[in-house]
Amino acid sequence: MANIGVLVGSLSTRSYSQRIVNYLERSQSFLNLVQLNFDILPLYNPDLEQVPVVEWQVFRNVVDQMDALLIVTPEYNFSIPGGLKNAIDVLSVPLPQAHIEKKPILVITDSSGERGGVVANTHIQQLLRYAGANVMNELIAIGKVQDIFDHNGELQDSQVATMLDSAVKNFADFAET
Ligand SMILES: Cc1cc2nc3c(=O)[nH]c(=O)nc-3n(C[C@H](O)[C@H](O)[C@H](O)COP(=O)(O)O)c2cc1C
């Protein structure tokens, strides 16, 4: 069974992105989804590569053990939340064997607006491809994310649920090929 590391771009305890991941953990229970926290990573600074920074080392080692990465994130100002960008920067070096080189990655974005963070999604895919990742060519952007959950935080929109299940199943196949 593939180990899929999960990066949630929102740090909020009330995060809708996190609720999407919670749903997938239940619906795709045959997959080994491993949530990876990156909020303790110091900001990337090349000067510190020689020190070394223990948090970066541990994070890189854990990601090395993952067969693939699933990113679920809100759009922030038409772009990527800063903490998630820092985590990707940490994984993108040191060269020549960056830690996301050839790593299969699926990007899911969400937003409170209609478009579901499509601008951020395409932007994140672009920067991951630049860093050498094997990004799945899907544009999964969930708009009006606040409307797809019931009062208990459970996913209630069956169309979104079907779309998410199908995307993650396809991604698991993509990651194994
Ligand atoms: C700093 C910030 C920037 C945001 N920028 C955008 C944006 O560019 N486009 C958009 O549709 N929504 C934007 N939003 C709204 C978020 O998409 C929405 O709050 C989303 O639910 C946050 O995800 P979360 O619930 O996982 O924390 C922004 C929210 C914040 C806090």
Can you put this structure into words, describing what you see?
It is a single chain. With 177 residues, the chain is of the alpha/beta class. The chain has one domain (3-176): Rossmann fold (3-Layer(aba) Sandwich), CATH 3.40.50. It contains five helices and six strands, in the order βαβαβαβαββα. The chain has helices at residues 16-27, 54-64, 82-91, 118-130, 158-176, and strands spanning 3-8, 32-35, 68-74, 104-110, 134-135, 140-142. Strands 1, 2, 3, 4, 5 and 6 form a six-stranded parallel beta sheet that branches. Strand 4 (104-110), helix 4 and strand 5 form a beta-alpha-beta unit. Bound molecules: flavin mononucleotide (FMN). Residues 10, 12, 15-17, 74-78, 111-113, 117, 145 line the site of flavin mononucleotide. InterPro entries: Flavoprotein-like_sf, FMN_Rdtase-like_dom, NAD(P)H-dep_reductase. Pfam families: FMN_red. GO terms for molecular function: FMN binding; oxidoreductase activity. This is NAD(P)H-dependent oxidoreductase.
Tally the structural domains: 1
Our estimate of the beta-strand percent is: 15-25%
- Helical fraction equals 25-40%
CATH architecture name? 3-Layer(aba) Sandwich
Question: How many DSSP E strands?
Answer: 6
Query: How many strands, what sense, and barrel or not for the largest sheet?
Result: 6 strands, parallel
- What count of helical segments does DSSP give? 5
- How many angstroms does the end-to-end distance come to? 13 Å
Pfam family, one: FMN_red
InterPro entries: Flavoprotein-like_sf (IPR029039), FMN_Rdtase-like_dom (IPR005025), NAD(P)H-dep_reductase (IPR050712)
Domain NADPH-dependent FMN reductase-like: 3-145
Organism: Levilactobacillus suantsaiihabitans
